[in-house]
Amino acid sequence: MATGAPPPTAFPSDGVDVALRDGGVVHIREVTPEDVGPLTALLHALDPDERRLRFFTAGVNLERMARYAADVAGRDGAGLVAEGDGVLLGHAEFIRVDAETAEVAFETAPAAQGRGLATVLLAHLAQMATHWGITTFTASVLPENHHMIDVFRASGFAVTVQTHPGELVLEFPCEMTPEARGRFEERERRAAVEAMRGLLAPASVAVVGASARPGSVGATVWGNLVDSGFTGALHPVNRHGGELDGYAVAKSVLELDPVPELGVVVVPADAVLDVVDQCAEAGIMRLLIVSAGFAEGDARGAARQDELMHRCRSAGIRVVGPNALGLINTDPQVALNASVTPVPPAPGGIGVLSQSAGMGLALMERARTTGLGLSTFVSVGNKADISGNDVLQYWEDDPRTEVALLYLQSFGNPRKFARIARRVGRTKPILAVKGGRTPPRVDAEASSTGALLAGSDITVDTLCRQVGVIRAGSLDEVLDVARLMTDTHLPAGPRVAIVTNSRGPALVCADACADSGLEVPPLEDGTRERLLRHVAEGAAVENPVDLFASAGPREIRHAVAVLADSDEIDAVIAIVSPSLAASAVDAAEAIAAGAADADAEVPIIAAFPATAAPPDELRAGPARIASFTFPESGARALGRAARYAQWRARPVEPPATVHADADVAAAVIARALGAGGGWLEPADTERLCAAYGLPLAPGDVVDTPEDATRAAERLGFPVALKAVAGAPPTQADLSLLALGLDSAAGVMAAAARIQARAAAEGVDHTRLLVQRMVPAGVRMLVGVVGDPQFGPLLVCGAGGVEAELVRDVAVRLTPVSRADVHAMVRELRTFPRLDGYRGAPKADVAALEDVLVRVGAMAEAHPEIAEMDCNPVIVSPTGAAIVDVRIRVAPARPVAPLPSVGGA
Q1: Closest of 548, 545, 549 to residue 560, by C-alpha
Q2: What does the alpha-carbon distance between residue 352 and residue 354 come to, in Å, rounded to a whole number?
Q3: Cβ partners under 8 Å of residue 524, min gap 6
Q4: How far apart are CA 793 and CA 617, in angstroms?
Q5: CA-CA distance, 377 to 228, in Å (whole number)?
Q6: Are 903 and 188 within 8 A, CB to CB?
Q7: Domains in the chain, ordered, with CATH?
Q8: Residues 6+ away with beta carbon under 8 Å from 597
Q9: 135, exposed or middle or buried, with CB in 10 Å at 0-12, 13-18, 19+?
Q10: Conformational region of residue 551, where left means phi above 0, alpha means psi within -120 to 50, and beta covers everything else
Q11: What is the mean pLDDT of residues 337-364?
Q12: Rounded distance, CA 292 to CA 572, Å?
């Protein structure tokens, strides 16, 4: 390792849960000396030929090998074990050979072979090794050990093979290549799909706690399963036995043969753990736990949930819940309703996930009453295991699900959610309602950047915007967007034509379009001429197009067709109030016919503000038309759909890369952490900025007014002078700052004044930063705040002393692409100041974007940067210069190096 580099980063202390390709779960953690017994058992489970291939001899002393493996730290190495089904299923280790090379070996139990465990262990081990400064793995294998060779090759690492007498020596780099990471993410995706398939499309279901007692949860769940016409086998289980609806009731799942694929648990909370043990013994690997009394309650319930998940993880069981409302799949080939919902949803194209039972019921009821159909419904309850990430990946493969709708109260793994949602959203819209608009838990102390984010919900908004998730503020709004997404096409742009027979609703609609980021542009002459051919004389054919109350079905049909076919329009909103000339039914038929007449496929929205519900005749023709009672609802939904379509049309751009000396940066941070962390000294801040090529204005830190004068002469006048006491000052305290000093006498006087003012405020000794003045320009803020869940947040905004007053910021989660920072700068309200506002010279925006890219790369590479504040960054026509910067470091929480179970 490089001198001063940080010590090897530990694997997450509590380990990680990883899904295998068959949907089962194993727990991976670092090996400990207490693992000698389980490791011995693992080695004994290998057949003699496997032991010979592993150790080059069948006569190896397995107990001694187990002791060596458990004491890997004493041999300058690291090891991991995988637990599942109550035993160790795998072990992998590396031992350092030299400064940059280590030898790797692993073994997996027969029960775990073929499930992808070996490659998962290898990848996690490789990621650990990189923190040790190890760049290369080697492995010696017998020529006939094809399985081990296949594992190395299947991992995606670039393996080279050298032939030696009696053995092959494999060598490959530890660094995870994009190909290797892609393979592991694909394995994760397949595992999630397989886990969800067993939950949403099981071949057989056992209901543990099934009951005939009216009103009980057990009776409701069982009755819904029977009434839904579930196409698989049903098994009621109750300790009292007997018969239920013609089914023999088993007293325990251990009596069932064959073993059910899904177990639905509806027993009291204090009986759940025993049921889980029985399910594990029987081999039921998927559970829906409806029972409440866990982490949603008190500390006792939380402890019970911890024990529940410990037992499920040990057995490799995947769980929905506890405290879940249930699972529904409306596919007639499955017909699963394992829920307590009083009225099942109609079949349709919307997949719904809810973290709240109450909100889940409300979503289904509102969907039912407004005519929306569901493909599947998943209530994750306390989200102890199965999460939105798993369900999203199932929906990605499900042809019946057109739109994903999430109600979330928390994010378990936002960065994993971002990766999955970004991929899924390219083909299927993801809608979200996030409950609990609480401030983000940013790790910020006293910077302008932290202050700008405090008390806002900007973190979740940023996540959704970056990955294309459509975030709505209410159930009605999210269902409006879902209706539009399932009933019509995505708009190609923001241009909307409004046609109506009543001007008032059209004006309200136009306002709603403007508020939603849509345009209602004037129509070109050719379009107006085509409209006038079949409308009443005097009709207003601007935009909105007002056909007047006298317009009949023919005029409405013609106007809709002309507008839909116009190249200058991306969507049409038709607003009709019943009149003597056209009833609601007549108008609906006319809109449907006009949509069918049009050659272009643009979204067409119909609104009937004076009618209780849009007429069914809207769906009479082949065209897809989204209908709403009020046009404002349609306009808001269309605005969100247009932004989503714009996001989906953008090419996928990888994170920006920069040339940086990451080792120097790591060394600076390691030394600071060794000294207790906190705000970096100016010299360390300068070294860290230099390592990433950040344009810090030249300067020197000195102790006395005389030293300040000499520094100013070295740097060249004019200079700025600032106090340095503890954390470097911001421009919030102008009394400790002097600008534009152009003489030695001026520097001497200003330095004495600043130190005297600091002394009056109780600072015994104030050092001084002398900085060369940079060209005049626009003052901007660039910063980073670390979020313990979301990771680094990159911030750009209006800077200077007014930063917290103006509060004009754009935020992105790292890593960022160059397209991300390009968009960040331009979404600021104050961007015109950079772009030559009122004749001012245009600033070098590209230079500002480069600063953002470099700061983002540094924050992503070094999660120990808890807070960074560059304020101001002065952007002139000739470049950008960071005038004030301060950086705070703190220990970073170890993170799983590869995809793990859990998430949103």
Answers
A1: 545
A2: 7
A3: 566, 568
A4: 50
A5: 14
A6: no
A7: 16-175 (3.40.630.30), 493-645 (3.40.50.261), 698-772 (3.30.1490.20), 778-889 (3.30.470.20)
A8: 557, 560, 561
A9: middle
A10: beta
A11: 94
A12: 48
- Spatial separation of the C-alpha atoms in residues 843 and 875, rounded to whole Å: 6
Residue 851 CA: distances (Å) to CA of 548, 656, 786, 857, 874: 56, 12, 18, 10, 11
* Overall average pLDDT of the 520-543 stretch: 90
68 CB neighbour count, 10 Å cutoff: 18
The H or E element that residue 277 is part of is helix 269-282
Instruction: Provide the pLDDT for residue 4.
Output: 40
For residues 869 and 795, is the Cβ–Cβ distance under 8 A?
Answer: no
Query: Can you tell me the distance from the alpha carbon of 771 to that of 699, in angstroms, rounded to the nearest whole number?
Result: 4
Contact in structure between 699 and 771 (CB atoms under 8 Å): yes
Q: Average pLDDT, stretch 279-290? A: 96
- Reported as a single tens digit per residue, the pLDDT across 867-879 is 999 989 999 999 9
Residue pointed to by tokens 């199965």: 386
Query: What is the arithmetic mean of pLDDT over 794-813?
Result: 84
Residue 372: exposure state from Cβ atoms within 10 A (0-12, 13-18, ≥19):
buried
Backbone angles phi, psi at 630, to 5 degrees: -110, 135
Bridge partners of residue 327, in order along the sequence: 338, 378
Q: Percent of the chain scored above 70 by pLDDT?
A: 94
**Selection from 454, 458, 444, 459 nearest residue 867 by Cα:** 444
* pTM as predicted: 0.85
The upper half-sphere exposure of residue 414, i.e. CA atoms within 13 Å in the direction of its Cβ, equals: 24
Residue 904: pLDDT band with limits 50, 70, 90: low
The DSSP output letter for 843 is: P
pLDDT digits (tens, 9 = 90+) for 352-379: 999 999 999 999 999 998 889 999 999 9
The length of the chain in residues reads 904
| Residue 671 burial class via C-beta count within 10 angstroms: exposed 0-12, middle 13-18, buried 19 and up | middle
Sign of the Cα pseudo-torsion (646, 649, 655, 658, in order): negative
pLDDT band at 456 (very low <50, low <70, confident <90, very high): low
Token pair recorded at residue 64: 């001694």
Quickly list H helices, 771-904. Answer: 803-806, 818-826, 831-834, 845-861
Cβ atoms of residues 249 and 236 within 8 Å:
yes
Q: CA 253 to CA 315: how far, in whole Å?
A: 16
Neighbouring C-beta atoms of residue 259, cutoff 10 Å: 16
Phi/psi of residue 279, nearest 5 degrees: -65, -40
Closest CA to 90 of 117, 126, 70: 117
The pLDDT tens digits for 821-836 are 999 999 999 999 999 9
pLDDT the model gives residue 164:
80
Q: Strands (DSSP E) along 302-358, which ranges?
A: 318-320, 326-329, 336-339, 347-354
CA-CA distance, 824 to 570, in Å (whole number)?
26
Q: Look at residue 185 in the predicted model and tell me its pLDDT.
A: 83
pLDDT tens-digit profile of 416-431?
899 999 999 999 999 9
The string of pLDDT tens digits covering residues 557-597 is: 999 999 999 999 999 999 998 887 788 899 999 999 999 99
Would you say 857 and 656 are in contact if contact means Cβ atoms under 8 Å apart? yes
Q: Where are the alpha helices (DSSP H) in 830-884?
A: 831-834, 845-861
Q: Tokens 């809207």 sit at which residue?
A: 618
CA dist 507 and 510 (Å) reads 5
Q: Band of the pLDDT at 153, cuts 50, 70, 90?
A: confident
The encoded tokens of residue 387 equal 């999460």
User: What's the rounded Cα separation, in Å, for the pair 703 and 754?
Assistant: 12
Give CA–CA dist 758/186, Å, rounded. Answer: 59
Tokens 């540094």, residue located: 858
Task: Identify the residue whose tokens are 């919030």.
Answer: 732
pLDDT(441) > 50: no
The structure tokens listed for 738 are 């002097």
